[in-house]
Structure formats: C-alpha cells, structure tokens
Design goal:
Blueprint (H helix, E strand, L loop, with lengths): L1 H17 L8 H14 L1 H18 L1 H7 L3 H9 L1 H41 L2 H12 L1 H49 L1
Helix pairs in contact: 2-6, 2-7, 3-6, 3-8, 4-6, 7-8
Organism: Sphingoaurantiacus capsulatus
Keywords: Signal
Protein name: DUF2059 domain-containing protein
Length: 186
C-alpha cells in the first residue's frame, strides 16, 4: 500500500513538473502558425506532391513495383506482361481514386496538425520571422519550387525503395529463414 501511495506521488510530481513542457501553445502562437500554414499553401503543396504518386498508381507502376518484390509474382507477371500491366493499371486507377478520397479527408487534418506543430516548435517571434521570409522574394520562390522538389524526391523514393528493399530482403532471407524455421516446424 505504501508503494502505491509513493507511486501516485511520483506520478503527480512528474505531471506537475512536465505540465509546462506539455502545455498547449498560446492563442497568439496558433494564430501566427495558422498564418504561416496558409501562406505556405500547405493544401496545394500536399496535392501537388501527391500528383506523381497518383500518376504512378494509375499507370500500374506502383502496384507493379510492389508485385515485383515477390519472386513468384514477378515470374507470373513475366509470362503475360501485357495482361498484367492492364490489370495493374485498372487496379492502380482504383487505388488512386481511393487515395484521392482519403487525401481529401486528411488534408484539413494535416493542415490543422501543421498549425499545432509549428506553434509547438517555434516561438511567436520565430513564426513571425518565417512569415516575413515567406513573403520575401526568396521565400515566394521557395514556396513555388518546393512542390517540384518534393515530387522529384517522391519519384526517386518510389523507384529506388522497391529495388533496394528487394536486395535487402534477399540478403536477409537466409537469416529470416533460419530464425523462422523452428517456428514453422511446430
């Protein structure tokens, strides 16, 4: 019983000490962060950044990269590539449509969380400086070019990750098999 009381006292003390660190941002910080997010045009940047992903899905490229990670599926696909490509494009179109619906629902949440995150990590003064920067010619240029930079980065990730994951998984396969073999025998 004494341990439980001590435990509660420690937890209460930690909460009191941590309270200032986890306090909600001020209304002023949230207002500045909201202005920064609006100025940054987060909604547009998210949508532009996803365009390459949607295009890769619609073409079947994204699903094809996923399928090709499995050697048996890759073999099946190689036997009738035209039919597989057509099926992957149809499925990818459905996948893209669903993701677009999801993103439409998520973008307002992402924007609001961005506001909260900026307000949490930057002071009001720092937020005002960021706003001033984004209103400057260089800041406007950054805002203009970031979507293209992000799209190029996403395209690289979509082409490199499956290839590198495949080689990584091939290298790990013997170890995975050794580790799991005793479990499969049971």
């Amino acid at each position: 019983m004494r341990i439980a009381g001590l435990h509660r006292a420690i937890v209460a003390t930690l909460l009191l000490v941590a309270a200032p660190a986890i306090a909600a941002p001020s209304a002023e910080a949230l207002a500045a962060a909201r202005e920064l997010v609006a100025l940054s045009d987060t909604r547009s940047q998210l949508q532009q950044g996803m365009q390459q992903t949607f295009a890769d899905m619609r073409s079947g490229k994204a699903l094809g990269a996923y399928i090709d990670q499995n050697p048996q599926m890759r073999l099946q696909r190689s036997r009738n590539p035209a039919a597989w490509d057509a099926a992957l494009a149809r499925l990818g179109g459905k996948q893209a449509t669903q993701l677009e619906i999801l993103m439409t629902e998520l973008v307002p949440l992402i924007e609001e969380r961005s506001v909260e995150t900026y307000a949490k990590h930057f002071s009001v003064d720092e937020l005002r400086q960021l706003i001033a920067f984004h209103r400057s010619p260089l800041g406007k240029l950054v805002l203009e070019k970031v979507p293209a930079v992000m799209a190029d980065s996403m395209a690289l990730m979509q082409t490199e990750m499956p290839r590198r994951m495949k080689s990584m998984m091939e290298a790990l396969a013997p170890e995975i098999e050794r580790e799991l073999k005793p479990l499969l025998a049971k």
